[in-house]
Amino acid sequence: MKRAVVVFSGGQDSTTCLIQALDQYDEVHCITFDYGQRHRAEIDVARDLAIKLGASAHKVLDVGLLNELAISSLTRDNIPVPTESEDGIPNTFVPGRNILFLTLAAIYAYQVQAEAVITGVCETDFSGYPDCRDEFVKALNKAITLGMARDVRFETPLMWLNKAETWALADHYQKLDLVRRETLTCYNGIQGDGCGECAACHLRSHGLNEYLANQAVVSASLKEKTGL
């Protein structure tokens, strides 16, 4: 029995990871974190999608302490979210978020005897977040394996894909329309195509338009990178 845990926010990236994991693993558990985030609707979206797509289980963990410690536009309503990509680390960065999420997901994987923790972090279109880098994920994976005396593998299927290729991956599994209409990526908490104004919506729509305009080219690039 091959088991995996997906760090699941209900956004485009984590939903695409869940879709792929359901094809590759016998049992897939989703874990969603409630940290008092600005767009809390993502928790309900994640719950609905986990059920709809057929995840084996879905756990929502309360990690409100993160909100208390990490000041960001995603944890404070009085800090406006950016409308364009910024140089350096943007104000949407939540310090320590992926350190905490991956650590707790690994503990959960230990509990359910899963061999892998899957996360949708990406270094190609990572918005300047330092905790989305391949180097960070590998370093934390090594520390957690040592600390728990058990092999748990962190998988990052989107690490070297751009947004257009991520859309192509969803389309490969015939779920492009679902990902487009039912996920929540928008920093302002609007499902589907979102507000169309925030940086997250711009990145998402740019990738979709690039894929739709160049499907053959993007799909070929995806195949070269992933073998799919």
From TrEMBL:
The record's remark on the cofactor is:
Binds 1 zinc ion per subunit.
Q: What cofactor is this protein dependent on?
A: Zn(2+)
- Annotated transmembrane regions: none
GO process terms (BP): tRNA queuosine(34) biosynthetic process
- Top-level enzyme category: ligase
Reaction(s) catalysed by this chain, per the record, are: 7-carboxy-7-carbaguanine + NH4(+) + 2 ATP = 7-cyano-7-carbaguanine + 2 AMP + 2 diphosphate + 2 H(+)
Q: Which residues bind ATP?
A: 8-18
The positions annotated for binding Zn(2+) are 186, 195, 198, 201
A GO term for molecular function: ligase activity, forming carbon-nitrogen bonds
Q: In which pathway does it act?
A: Purine metabolism; 7-cyano-7-deazaguanine biosynthesis
Role of this protein: Catalyzes the ATP-dependent conversion of 7-carboxy-7-deazaguanine (CDG) to 7-cyano-7-deazaguanine (preQ(0)).
- The name this protein carries in UniProt is 7-cyano-7-deazaguanine synthase
